[in-house]
Amino acid sequence: MPKFAANLTMLFNEFDFLDRFQASAKAGFTAVEYLFPYAYPAQQLADLLQQYRLTQVLHNLPAGDWAKGERGIACLPDRVGEFQDGVGKAIGYAQALGCTQLNCLVGVAPKNLPEDQLRATLLANLGYAARELKQAGIRLLIEPINTFDIPGFYLSRTSQALDLIAEVGSDNLFLQYDIYHMQRMEGELANSIKANLPKIAHLQLADNPGRNEPGTGEINYAFLFQFIDQLGYDGWIGCEYKPRTTTIAGLDWLQSCL
């Protein structure tokens, strides 16, 4: 049976963030993920995980100024020092939280810079992060994101991510496959997951259109969950969707889709 982690950035948003740990545990989740932990002391978050017996399965490397629309800095040539500092900060948090996977949001490509410069910067940054994380016993992930939601995002297709992974040449760089994003960009979900399973370290979900809970859109999650289970995928599936009403009211999918 698939293992589901509550994405606390998007789920239980009827609660203050720190109260979402208790809410997720009360709803039956045993694991959580979220975009960033950096606004809170690591020990405060670690205490909540311990108190509610939750596993932290994922968070992101620092991704620039989120409030100003930045969605990662790994491809930006003038932010390499900031990126490297962020890797160290993320490792410190991950170790405090017992989190063994970190995702790198690569960023929006500036229109005034050539592609070869962006790619070279990204490859160097990924190589650096993969080495540093490996020493800490943490896996590095990269995630293709659809360009409808984030126009200009540098990494938007599975094949592009796999090419980057191959070129970096690290055994500590993996694919985070978001079912919602890849439905919008590619389709062929089952075949893509099957073909790339050895490189997929984490899955995320939401339905389409709307990015709401499973069962509200076009994706056949009942089939897909069974298919993923039959493939032998033993990682987590992060529930990164926008509840159509409230999180609690929309959790029937956990029973109806399995």
Helix count from the secondary structure assignment = 9
Overall shape: globular
* SSE ordering: EHEHEHEHEHEHHEHEH
Give the CA-CA distance, first to last residue: 8 Å
CATH class: Alpha Beta
Q: CATH H level: which superfamily?
A: Divalent-metal-dependent TIM barrel enzymes
- Number of domain modules: 1
Protein structure class = alpha/beta
The CATH architecture assignment turns out to be Alpha-Beta Barrel
Low-confidence stretches: none
Strand order of the main beta sheet, please? 1-2-3-4-5-6-7-8
Mean pLDDT: 97
Helix content: 25-40%
Predict the CATH topology.
TIM Barrel
Share of β-strand residues: 5-15%
Description:
- By secondary structure, this protein is an alpha/beta fold.
- It has a single domain, classed as TIM Barrel.
- 38% of the residues lie in helices and 15% in strands.
- Strands 1-2-3-4-5-6-7-8 form an 8-stranded parallel barrel, surrounded by 5 helices.
Structure summarized in a few sentences:
The protein has 258 residues and is an alpha/beta fold. It has 9 helices and 8 strands. It has helices spanning 20-26, 42-51, 80-97, 115-135, 158-168, 179-185, 189-196, 221-231, 253-256; strands spanning 3-7, 31-33, 55-60, 101-104, 139-142, 173-178, 200-205, 236-239.
Notable characteristics:
alpha/beta, about 260 residues, about 40% helix, eight-stranded parallel barrel, TIM Barrel
